[in-house]
From TrEMBL, chains A, B, C, D, E:
InterPro entries: EutN_CcmL (IPR004992), EutN_CcmL_sf (IPR036677). It comes from the Bacteria. It is found in: Carboxysome. The keyword Oxidoreductase does not apply. This is Ethanolamine utilization protein EutN. It comes from Neobacillus kokaensis. Its main location: other. Keywords: Bacterial microcompartment, Carboxysome.
Amino acid sequence: MQMGTVIGNVWATRKEDELTGLKFLIVQPEMPDRTSAGTPFIAVDRIGAGFGDQVLVTRGSAASNMSNDKQLPIDALIIGIIDSVDVETKRGE
Amino acid sequence: MQMGTVIGNVWATRKEDELTGLKFLIVQPEMPDRTSAGTPFIAVDRIGAGFGDQVLVTRGSAASNMSNDKQLPIDALIIGIIDSVDVETKRGE
Amino acid sequence: MQMGTVIGNVWATRKEDELTGLKFLIVQPEMPDRTSAGTPFIAVDRIGAGFGDQVLVTRGSAASNMSNDKQLPIDALIIGIIDSVDVETKRGE
Amino acid sequence: MQMGTVIGNVWATRKEDELTGLKFLIVQPEMPDRTSAGTPFIAVDRIGAGFGDQVLVTRGSAASNMSNDKQLPIDALIIGIIDSVDVETKRGE
Amino acid sequence: MQMGTVIGNVWATRKEDELTGLKFLIVQPEMPDRTSAGTPFIAVDRIGAGFGDQVLVTRGSAASNMSNDKQLPIDALIIGIIDSVDVETKRGE
């Protein structure tokens, strides 16, 4: 999974039928220290993430393994809102 | 998902049998502010996207999760035509 | 999907059993104007592509969605031989 | 699969329901000689990996092929804790 | 698929249960002329590849389409040992 911060929203009225009602957020991928790391992308959110939240995102077709009856054509899903990140900097201590 | 703009079309008469009738568009991937971000690729379109439209594209095998009976060998699908993008630039406001 | 040109062949006598009889071609990925764009890779061809053909390639596990009984361990499939590419360079005209 | 070292943990109370109870570790991808190679990412661990361990990680939707009843929306899984790596530097000897 | 050369082995005693007995090789990805192209990765081998062999590797979740009863959490599989590579350098001749 990738860490990132929610930086915005995308609206699309005309879309694949099955996707009606889903929320699409713009996520800026980040390093553990929250410096930017790569190009922003769009992720589906079902857990109530909002602007500025640090999130955990599953990318690729695994994103479509949501607990629905069928697999949707989505390739990024916010799976968690991060409470804390603990990075240790010394090996073996 | 990735944002991008439709910049052209590709025609292929000889193709895998199951793909007959699909429309193949060339998409230039872009940042939220519509500056280019990477190499153009080809996506299937079923929702009527056209030249110049800003679109939302699912890449990878999730693209084949279209509402058909079987999964097709495609790796990019235009899932929405973007109405508006809202990027906020200050955290916590 | 990715555009590219067929630049060669690969032969492998010893291989996973299910892959016997498949044709493996080397594809140079390209931009719409046919300038090179990245590292050559190997794709399965079932539609008769040959040296110098400009092709459309599906990459990733969607390539295994061929019309067979079972999914094979392949990650690139030539899905079309390109007749023409139409890239428009001015927006909204 | 990718080699890497566990460098930390991520906690997320609010998450997709099915993911409750999973452990999320931060992995720094590495070359065989353990020099860093790319951006840290988050992987699910079920085999007891800990800080400083050199691990083998499956990325992409294959990570969801865990021995469960259903496929989860995760895209990285620690599949092994590495005991030793043997890289030979001369061909044909 | 990707071409590469087997440059070593990885051993991991503690691993996901289903992976017991699989052989994990280190592969250096290469161009058709065997110059290096990217970061080494780990692939499962079931066809007897060894040190120095030039191999064809399927990456991503398609690697788990092995002829088994269930799909395993692996993302790279050696599918062939290359006998010969034929790259032509002039178009249309």
